[in-house]
Amino acid sequence: MWVSVILAITCIGIGTTGAPFDPAQVIAPKFTVEPKDVVFNPAGTTTTVSFQCTATGDPAPQYLWFKQYVDLDSITRQPPYQTSGGTLTIPTPTAADQGRYWCQAYNEYGRVVSVGANLTFAYVDDFDIGPRTGVTTSSGNGTLLPCMPPNAFPGLVYHWIEADQTSFISPTVRRYASQKNGDYYFANVDPNDNGLYQCGVKINLNAGGATDPSTAGFNEFSPHTELTVNSATPVPQSPPQLVLFETVQYKKRGDNVLMEFFAYGNPTPTLGWRRVDAIGGNPMEFPPSAKYEQWNRAMTLTNVALPDQGFYEVTATNSQGTDVKTAQLIIEDVPQYIKKLETQNLDLAPGEDINLEVTWQDDGRNPVTPTWYYNGADVVPDGTKYIVDNSSPATSRLTVKNAQPGVDSGSYQSILENQYGLTPSFSEVRVGAPAKVADLKLVEKGDNSPTLSWSEPQTKAELDGYQIQYYPTDNPDNVQYMDVGKTPLQATVPNSNPDTSTYRARQN
C-alpha cells in the first residue's frame, strides 16, 4: 500500500494493529455518489440520460457499468454507451434502454457495487374515445365532471376547456380541477355553467407534488362532457360538504406531497388549514415548505422529512355551517443504520476471524432484508467459512473464519433493503497486508537528491523494509523503485528533481 508525496505535501498513513482503523484512512473504494432513478420523457427536448457513480480510493477507482446483470461493454448499441470517469451517458434513449443500471468501482485493494437505478420512460395513453354521459343538476348544487384520465407515468397535469375554445378555463373560487385525478369540481352551479367540457392532460414528471403551471404540451383531450344546470327559484343554500379530502398518505422521505380538499356548498365555502398534534387536537407550526393554492384547495410540501409527518386539518365554512376533515401524513424511509460498517475497517493477522455487524432502526412496519458482499460479489453463507447470523432483531452479523491474505482482504459491504429502497455501508479489511507508511514527507530537497522521511507503520504484517517509488509527475509511467531497510526511517533518492516528481512509499 502506497503513500505519496509531491514536494512537501504530507500524506497521513494508516493502520492500527489489531483494531479498527480510521474511516478517513480507507484506500479501498467507497461510494460517495450512487446512481439515482431517471424518468425520461421521449416527448421532451432532452436527448441523453446520465447516471453517476463516484467513489473514493487510493489509487483512484475505475468503474464498470451494468444493465441488469450484463456488462455494458458486452452490449452492442448505436449510438454506443458513453462512459467518462464514473459517469454513464445514454445518447438518444429508446424504449429498449429501459431497465436497471448499476456500477462497480474497483482498485487493487477492493471492489464495491452500487445500488441500482431504474431508467423508465414517461408516457400518456389516449383517452377512451367513447361518448361521455352528461351531468344534469340544479342551481345551487355542488357537482363534478369526471376526467377519467388515460393511463400515464409518472403522472399528469390537468386543465379543462370549454368545447371549441382554445384557452383553458381560468381557476375560480367556485371551481377546482383536482391535480390527482383531473375531476372538475363545482362548489355550486348556476345556468351560466351550462356547456360542453373537455379534460386536457400532459405528462407531469414531478408527480406527487407541485405541478407544471404552463399549458404547453397538452395534446390529449377527453371527449365532451355536457353539463346541464336547471334553474331553481329560489336558489337553495346549503352547508359545506367536503367531498374531496385526504385520509392517510404514506410518503417516502424526500418526496413531495400534495393534499387536496374541496367542499360543496352555497354560498361557496372558504377553506382553512391547521396542523394539529392529533385529530381535533392542538395547533402546531406548519413545515416551512408548505404552500397553498389560491383558495386553499391544495397544499404542497416539498422534500418532506420525518418532522413533517402528523395531522393536517381542513375546515370548510359558509353562512350555513362548517365541515371538518383531517388527513394524516406518514413519512417512510429507506433503511437507516444504527451501527454501520464504516466504523469497522479492520487490520488483522492471518488466521484471525473477520467479524462484522450492522444494526438498523426497526419501525415495525417495513421489513428490512440485509445482504452481504465481498469485493462486489454476494457472500454465500456455507456454515463453515462464511457465517451470516440474522437471528437478533434488526441485526446482521458476518463472520469469515480463518482469514487469509490475498483471499479475504478487500471491500466488504452491507446493503439493507425495504420497500422504499436500499442503503449501503462499506468497510475495508486487511489481512496481513503491507501497511501504507505514515507521514511520508520531504525533509530536504538537496541537489536532485531529495531526502524523505516517514513513521513506522503499525500493522500485523511482517516488516522486511520499505520500497520507494518515484516518477516524473507529468509522466507516471516512467516509474523507478528503490528498496531500503527497516531503519533509519528515511531515504535519499538520487537523480530525482523534487520540484517535478512524485514519491510513494510502502512497507515490504
UniProtKB/TrEMBL annotation:
What keywords appear on the UniProt entry? Disulfide bond, Immunoglobulin domain, Repeat, Signal
A single Gene Ontology molecular function, please?
Answer: cell adhesion molecule binding
A single GO cellular-component term from the record reads: cell-cell junction
Instruction: Tell me the leader sequence span.
Output: 1-18
Entry keyword annotation includes Repeat: yes
Gene3D superfamilies linked: Immunoglobulins
In terms of InterPro entries, this protein maps to:
FN3_dom (IPR003961), FN3_sf (IPR036116), Ig-like_dom (IPR007110), Ig-like_dom_sf (IPR036179), Ig-like_fold (IPR013783), Ig_I-set (IPR013098), Ig_sub (IPR003599), Ig_sub2 (IPR003598)
The residue ranges of the Fibronectin type-III domain are 436-508
In residue numbers, the region (Disordered) covers: 488-508
Return the Pfam families for the record.
fn3 (PF00041), I-set (PF07679), Ig_3 (PF13927)
Q: Where is the composition biased (Polar residues)?
A: 489-508
Report domain Ig-like positions: 29-114, 131-217, 335-432
Any keyword Lipoprotein? no
> What protein name applies here?
Contactin-5-like isoform X1
Native organism is: Branchiostoma floridae (Florida lancelet)
Lineage at the top is:
Eukaryota, Metazoa, Chordata, Cephalochordata, Leptocardii
